[in-house]
Amino acid sequence: MVVVLNGVLADECPTSVRALLAAHPGYRDAAAQLLAAAPRVVGPQGLLYVAQRELAAAVPHDKNISIIGSDDATSCIIVVVRHSGSGAVSLAHLDGSGTAEAAAAMVARALQLAAGYPEGRLELQLVGGFTDPHRYSDELFANIMLSFHRLSEEIDLTLACCCELNTALGGGGAGGGGGAAPLVTGVGVDVRAGDLFPAAFPDRGPEQPLRAARTITGGPHSAQVLDIYDNAVGMLRIGPFNYDPLRGVDLWLEQSDEFILQHLSTTPNVEPPHFVHHIRTTLKFIQQHPFPAVTVFPDNRPHYYRRDEQTGCWVPMRF
Questions:
Q1: Which one, of 95, 45, 84, 52, lies nearest residue 67 by Cα?
Q2: 200 falls in which pLDDT band (50, 70, 90)?
Q3: pLDDT at position 190, please?
Q4: Residue 45 has pLDDT above 80, yes or no
Q5: CATH number at residue 297
Q6: pTM of the model
Q7: Which domain holds residue 257?
Q8: Number of domains observed in the structure of the chain
Q9: What crossing angle do the helices spanning 99-113 and 136-149 adopt, rounded to 10°?
Q10: Closest CA to 244 of 294, 310, 290, 175
Q11: How confident is the model at residue 178, as a pLDDT?
Q12: Rounded CA gap, 254 and 118, in Å?
């Protein structure tokens, strides 16, 4: 997929925001528009929340989903692929694991859902990451751009609110202190309108500790970016997957909040206030389920959730 920049096929793919702006300064204006928009706090009704190392896709006529989104992207980048003709949209929260495979899967899902629409183009939007001390976001931006550039279809980069374009000085989160901080860490997409906006999601849907456990453990499934939505039946799908037992989990849980923040975050100075609580909850889950293939997915089947028509929230399916 050759990346299209401002309507022109890119012979060489820019692998930094600085290089992108040097050739196409208009991307600064697009980022500024997003940064100027008022953030929205999105409730659980009609929401499909995509966690770290997950992806999902939806279409405007899906009665189960009105918003698809993700947040808490400090050094991570949220990637949106949208087909302008059909409105099909796929979204992923990428941290550097499984990037190339996720890019290919996002495009495949969007094109599959856009089948039958002769008009339209593929559009790419990137949000998140900042000029962090270790340049994690810069490396991730380069890998994402190259992953899309190496595919066979054309895709039009319409937004790159990343790295230096998403950096504020003098910020600070749970870790306190000053220095650089990301301006936008979460976005939602209105699936019907196609609009992208800054967002936060207090309710992130079911089984978050299980879903988060993959990112702090090892194992064959821990680095994959998993597709969490079954479009054919309109259900949220979790697993099945396994992860390696986390050695020393009891010792981790005995540590102070500050110790956990400093050692289990790549960007401790800019994490949100709920970061440590989220990590502790995940560690407790791993402690209780060191072998999820045995205790969580004993039948090796996904956990399915359907949208409750009265509450608009996800409820478990019982088979």
A1: 45
A2: very high
A3: 98
A4: yes
A5: 3.30.1330.200
A6: 0.95
A7: 3-316
A8: 1
A9: 50
A10: 290
A11: 59
A12: 58
